[in-house]
Amino acid sequence: MMKDDYEAYRELVEVAVEHALITMGSLELNKAKEMLKENYNITLADSLEHPDYLKKVLCELFGNAYQNILDTIYSVIEKQQEEKIIKKFLTIMES
């Protein structure tokens, strides 16, 4: 995979997660960003490399609403779901 492709997938995942969280509210988005930074020293842009951290934070913050967030993420990255790197991210997010 080319570096440009990888960066594009990172941005896609970041935008998808941001979109899903903003639907929960801007306070929720900011809280998730804060927790990622405090607990794991990562940003939303690092979600592609660390879906396990993202999942932990989202489950902790949103509990049962996690599935709704995941559904929204899916709807945003729909066309790239079969890309290997995206598929791996989604598999971890679902596990």
Q: What keywords describe this structure?
A:
Non-ribosomal Peptide Synthetase Peptidyl Carrier Protein, Chain A, 95 residues, 5 helices, 73% helix, mainly alpha, globular
Topology at a glance:
Blueprint: H1 3-22, H2 26-40, H3 51-62, H4 66-76, H5 84-94
Describe this structure in a few short sentences.
This protein is mainly α and 95 residues long. It has helices at 3-22, 26-40, 51-62, 66-76, 84-94.
User: What kind of sheet is the major sheet?
Assistant: none
Q: What is the H/E string?
A: HHHHH
Overall tally of domains? 1
Which residues form runs of ≥5 with pLDDT under 50? none
Share in β-strands: under 5%
Count of helix runs: 5
CATH topology: Non-ribosomal Peptide Synthetase Peptidyl Carrier Protein, Chain A
CATH architecture: Orthogonal Bundle
How far apart, in Å, are the first and last alpha carbons? 25 Å
Structural class: mainly alpha
- CATH C-level class is Mainly Alpha
Bin the helical content: over 70%
Calculate Rg over CA atoms.
12 Å
* Strand element count: 0
Instruction: Give the overall pLDDT as a whole number.
Output: 95
Shape: globular
Please provide a written account of the structure.
The structure is a single chain. The protein is mostly helical and 95 residues long. The chain has a single domain (3-94), classed as Non-ribosomal Peptide Synthetase Peptidyl Carrier Protein, Chain A (Orthogonal Bundle), CATH 1.10.1200. The protein has five helices and no strands. The chain has helices spanning 3-22, 26-40, 51-62, 66-76, 84-94. Helix 1 (3-22) crosses helix 4 and helix 3 (51-62) packs parallel to helix 5. It is globular, with a radius of gyration of 12 Å.
